[in-house]
Amino acid sequence: MAAKQENKAFYMEVGNRVRTVRENLGLTRKELAGRIGLSEYFLVSIENGRKGISIATLCKLSNTLCTPAEFLLTGRESPSDVTSITAMLSTMEPRVVKGAERILKAYLLAIRGI
After folding, report:
1. Over the stretch 30-79, which tens digit does the pLDDT of each residue have?
2. How many secondary structure helices (H) and strands (E) does the chain include?
């Protein structure tokens, strides 16, 4: 019985992190579910901790949310690297990538004091 309670708590934690990241990205449940090939009902079940997720679903969520699977599972943040930034940008429309490029250039100029 204790293991079942631990699983429920774990599912709740993972679901909460999925929901938080989704909301921070401004995605609706319908949009995210469509992007990863799940029903909206199943995504609600994940976010509410009623269902666990397969490794395949974890990978889809991680890629679509541009968030390391490790964070979704454990809540621990890993250091950013160029690979994760590239993966994030690869899912965006060209106009969004151009906007991100302009923002990054402005940021780099600002921190270099130029």
Report:
1. 999 999 999 999 999 999 999 999 999 999 999 999 888 999 999 987 76
2. 7, 0
Structural contact between residues 17 and 72, judged by C-beta atoms closer than 8 angstroms: yes
pTM for this model (two decimals): 0.68
User: For residue 47, with 0-12 CB atoms within 10 Å meaning exposed, 13-18 middle and 19 or more buried, which class applies?
Assistant: buried
Place of tokens 């509410």: 48
End-to-end CA distance of the chain: 61
CA distances from 14 to 4, 34, 90, 105 (A): 15, 20, 25, 35
